[in-house]
Amino acid sequence: MADDGSAQSAATWPLVKFSFQVKWDDKELIFQEVTGLSSETQVIEYRGGSSKVYSTVKMPGIQKFGNITLKKGIFKGDTALWNSYNLIKMNTIKRSTILISLLDETNAVAMSWSLLNAFPCKITVTDMKSDANEVAVESMELAHEGLTLKK
Question: What's the number of domains the chain is made of?
C-alpha cells in the first residue's frame, strides 16, 4: 500500500521559496526574485617553523558576504530602484537595514534574514529584443556588511 502522506506531521514539510517579502527600512518592496544570500568564512592556513608535521593548520578567518540581487518587473512610471540608486554619492549613501523574509502557507513570516548597512551598488535594466515574448525585468545589486538569521 502506498504512503499518502496523511500520517506526516504538518511541521515537517519544508518551506516553499516562492513566497517572500523584502522590507527596506520601513517600506515593503515587491520583487520577483532575491538571490545571493550567502556568507563565507575565509580560511587561514598556518604552519609554525618548528612544527614536526609537514602540513598546515587551518583556522577560521574573516567573514565576507556576497552581494544580494533583487529583480522585479518594470512598470511604467515606477522609478523606485533608480531613485535609490541615484542617492549614491562618493561615500555618502544612506545605509539601510533590509529584512528578507520567507513566508509560510498563511503568509506569516517563517524565517528572516537581516542585511546590515546595505546600499545599492549596481543597477541593470532589461535587455531588449524585438522578437522576445518576456516581461521586462530590472535588477539591483546590494552590498552589505552582515547577514544574520532572525527567527
Answer: 1
